[in-house]
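Hi F.,

I've been meaning to write this up properly since the lab meeting, where we talked about keeping a consistent format for the predictions we share between groups. The idea is simple: the sequence comes first, exactly as it goes in, then the structure tokens exactly as they come out, then a line or two of notes. No screenshots and no reformatting. I'm using this chain as the first example so we have something concrete to point to.
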Amino acid sequence: QVQLVESGGGSVQAGGSLRLSCAASKLTSLTMSTICMAWFRQAPGQEREGVATITNEGATNVADSVKGRFTISKDNDNKDNDNNTLYLQMNSRKPEDTAVYYCAADFIYYGLLKDYKYWGQGTQVTVSS
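Output, unedited:
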């Protein structure tokens, strides 16, 4: 069972930067190298939408709405096979980026679709103008 825990959310003024982390536990380094991960977000009253994805081979993709501002990466150098971490670097934040951000993972790559099997609980990000 993959466990995902997000952190790093908070309040930031427009134009600022924030980095979210997602600790993926119960994974070996081998498993981390075979799993695909993604960031989603959900604003109040809106559908959950895909923000950025990273395949098991490290290929990345970001939604058009955040392209050039958000970057996804992962760190699976934990040789103790305990926690491995996914990141979302968010620059040039806009008020419309305000949402709960979720980390997701699966051994199948679903792109920006919401079909991932494993989900974190989410972390709130608020951008004020």
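Notes:
Residues 69 and 91 are 5 Å apart (CA to CA).
The longest strand covers residues 18-25.

If this format works for you, I'll send the rest the same way.

G.
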